[in-house]
Amino acid sequence: MNEGSEFSLNIAQIVQRLRGSNLHSQIERQAKDCLHRPDIKLESLKEDVRNFLRISGWEKKLQNAVYRELHIQLPPNHPRAPPEHLKEPLAYMRKAQASWEKRVLKSLNSMSTELEVPLARKRPAAEQTELTNKWNEMGTDEPDLSRFRPVYAPKDFLEVLINLRNPNRDSCEDVSAWSHWGLVQVPLSVRDIPQLRKAYSELSLNLGQLGIDDVANIHPDLFENSYVQIGEKVVMEQDSAAAQQYSRRGCPTGLRADLWALILNSMNQPQDEMHYEQLKAGVIQHDLLVDNLIYKDVKLTASNDDYYFVFEDFLYQVLLCFSRDTAVLEHFKYNSATPPKSFIHVGEEEHVVVYPPNGVIPFHGFSMYVAPLCFLYNEPSTLYNIFREMYIRYFFRLHSISSSTSGIVSLCLQFERLLQTHLPQLFYHLRQIGAQPLRIAFKWMVRAFSGYLSTDQLLLLWDRILGYDSLEVVAVLAAAVFAFRAENLMEVTSLASAEIC
């Protein structure tokens, strides 16, 4: 395809998606209503309506909606390319992902059989009433979760990634001094330091960075005051693109919630609140096996965290609603994964359905994707919408196998290459004592450092993820942690001591 036809195809896709949206009907209604205004002339109807939509802010809302679509739509591809190539171009990655999905689903179904707990059931009326009454204090309930176990943990997923191989690549090809030092052995292209410096130029210490004290040539207070003023203007302008650019150098604490909502184009409209209430009703009416996995995960992770234990109720509310949200299935159009399907008994009949309804089986640590957001949003429907948008843009890539530059495979490779290139002695030492660096850093990366950094530091990291629309900085930070602790790590003699260090 030439560049012109690609551009036209992108426009057509965006128009088609927006045409069925609530925003389209709102703009259409506003355009019709403005026809009764005295300043709308018949001879200049088109221009007058456009001016009205621009002045009243609807044009800006449309621009933000288009900007969102540009960030989540399928990558450009040949019109005759099979659908699976759009999701993931490499066949061996697709095969590995499919195999992993079967394994996870088998584990879930086995749990259902062994524990004699149905995948889904309708709650009795008394149970529905009880759950409705305690909706805002679910953390006080202590169901017996001893029989339930996480379907998988990050370390299980890491073993799958370690065994990934390209069947078309000769193991003798591209042999270099460190090519076989690392655990991940797939030929994906990742950036080196000069390329990273160019791509992330706004992170240069020559520029003011929120959260860093040693700002060159600028007094920290002076920089922060002027920077906050710019942020206030960005929020006032309600421009998603400007908010994204601004967040590359960190978001002020008082503006972060508004800036993130603007970047994600998640403004919590009345229809969003209604959708949340419908999901809540679904939770109250039906009990799912995965609900127990969510309860168990929150108890094992966030409830034991000094920063997040106070948000236990919020986590249950958001994650239980998320598991039932079929709108999440949309992201499987550009996710290498496929939503799992299982047999559900409805009356006397058995039906094959996507299970859970959102197509996402939670794993150990999943609730930590939500926990930091609780510091920013205290209204459940707003918190829910922000989390869902963060998940379908970024977090899904951390637990699915793909060749994406923001995918977990590339992040692992990026991390190992940076260490091998710039700290080869440290890498070799850790490898020799059986403490492969990736085994330590993987759990950090798969959770985007949630639970491993203090919340203020974590939110500064997530500012950059949103600002650059990439998870690449997660791998760079993981390598930086090793660089920072290199002297101590050179003294350790085992994996256990390396992890403590």
TrEMBL record:
**SMART domains per the UniProt record, alphabetical:** TBC (SM00164)
Question: Which Gene3D superfamilies does the entry mention?
Answer: Ypt/Rab-GAP domain of gyp1p, domain 3 (1.10.472.80)
Residue ranges of domain Rab-GAP TBC in the record: 250-469
- The organism sits in which domain of life? Eukaryota
Record PANTHER family: TBC1 DOMAIN FAMILY MEMBER 19
* Protein name (Swiss-Prot/TrEMBL): Transcript variant X2
Q: Which gene encodes it?
A: tbc1d19
